[in-house]
Amino acid sequence: MAGIYIHVPFCKKKCSYCDFHFSTTFAAYRERMLDTMHSELLLRKSELGDNSIESIYFGGGTPSLLLSNELHSFLTLIHTNFNGLDTAEITLEANPDDITEANCIAWKSIGINRLSIGLQSFRENDLTWMNRSHSALEAEQCVSIAQAAGFSNISVDLIYGLPDLSLEEWDAHIARVLGMGIQHISAYCLTVEKKTALYKLVSSGQLTPGGDDAQSEQFLHLTDRLTSHGFHHYEISNFGLPGLEAIHNSNYWKGVNYLGIGPSAHSYNGIERRWNMANNAKYMADFGQNETWFEQEILTSKERWNELLMTGLRTSWGVNLQDLFQIAAPTKDFEANLKGFEEKKWLVKTDTHVILTREGRLMADYIASELFM
Ligand code: SF4
């Protein structure tokens, strides 16, 4: 099993909170970028060996900015050069303003079978300070447009911990997405990253994100509301109807191999991690001149231990202790910390796994760091 991630490094606008890699001025080199990414895909096809491709994920950036024939050219290349695509989950990240009837029909016709839509908020004011390219009305309408075109596997992204977001308003956001009949929800706490416009807004006092208590309350409320509606809370930020959990993202957390194509894309093969340079011009130039367009590292035992813990603790299936102890034997400190967290009811330990509880998920990063090698 393996996955392919295609990073489309273009966006219409720069969202104020975003620190992903993208460019808003790409018209002049759009074609050259896509050609370079095609070449990278072909050059690296042997890296996945005979593995069957279980998932293809168009992320970014804003892949819904690509024309359907541009998306199709990637899929055709993958179909002709990789194995086992017939049942693959093929996801397109899409912004609400790109979701039109014509686009959805075209996406369906080329084989996209899952949409991940960045709704973020239904409050117009939030979308304004976020500098999103869509309106609250578009957030309301886009899902039904996609459903009418035949999409039956739709994920939406929401952000909580927003400035002045009351629990009642957050509950209303959740009720709205539940009413849309979607299959999957990813919810992220607003994070203020340095070098973003949001960082400036917050440091200058123009905007105050929700405090820790509000964030925790909104997270727990989300968990309770969605699980009571039959959603499986399978990863800290992700909820899916049973059988419709994201295959691509789940495979990241399970340590399945994946190939990342395009500027800033990451790849992993169980031993080595590799990441392409997050610079559009340099990525294209270095690739074209046969220079190295990526950096890589072989994971040490310590890194593998820490990564297994970090990713496993975020999931509902937890950390597989046998896998962990194959990397190194547990120390006394590790056992003592585990016991302490168990007594606090932040985690449960079965014969084979360690799994965070509902409250433990609020402390996931802290717990992981205490159990690191
Ligand atoms: S559309 Fe997505 S990738 Fe582009 S700036 Fe906004 S959040 Fe970032």
Write structural notes for this entry:
The chain has 373 residues and is an alpha/beta fold. The chain has two domains: 2-253, TIM Barrel (Alpha-Beta Barrel); 301-371, Arc Repressor Mutant, subunit A, CATH 1.10.10. Helix content is 40%, strand content 20%. It contains 14 helices and 15 strands. It has helices at residues 30-43, 68-81, 101-110, 124-129, 136-148, 167-179, 197-203, 212-228, 247-254, 280-288, 301-313, 321-327, 332-343, 364-371, and strands at residues 2-8, 53-60, 89-94, 114-120, 154-160, 184-189, 232-235, 238-240, 257-261, 266-268, 272-276, 294-298, 319-320, 347-349, 353-356. The chain has a nine-stranded mixed sheet with strand order 7-8-6-5-4-3-2-1-9, with helices on both faces. A three-stranded antiparallel sheet has the order 10-11-12, with no helix packed on it. Helix 1 (30-43) crosses helix 10 (280-288). The protein is globular and about 60 Å long. It starts with a strand and ends with a helix. The mean pLDDT is 96. The protein binds iron/sulfur cluster (SF4). Iron/sulfur cluster (SF4) binds at residues 11, 14-15, 18, 20, 22, 60-62, 95, 118.
